[in-house]
Design brief:
This protein is mainly α. The chain has 4 helices and no strands.
Length: 94
Amino acid sequence: MKLSEQAKNLVKNFSDEVEFYKLVYRHPGTPRVSKLFLGAAIAYAVSPIDLIPDFIPVIGYLDDLVIVPLLIWMAVRFIPERVIIECRNTKQQI
């Protein structure tokens, strides 16, 4: 597989996951705590304020690569499995 194909697949997978988390966030069965964690992940990802400033080489982006997935992981832990299955099925139908 060429590097360009891998990059396209990575972008497609990322956009699919973003759409999935949008569905999860809007689902009425998603607990408030999960919505809070997902909202915090989005806010941290787009916020210009970081724990470690991005202008510091390597370490500046490392906090983004750790904190955002951690917040998403914490959100998913509280979501009932039926909600995840419903949202995955809805995403596949779109």
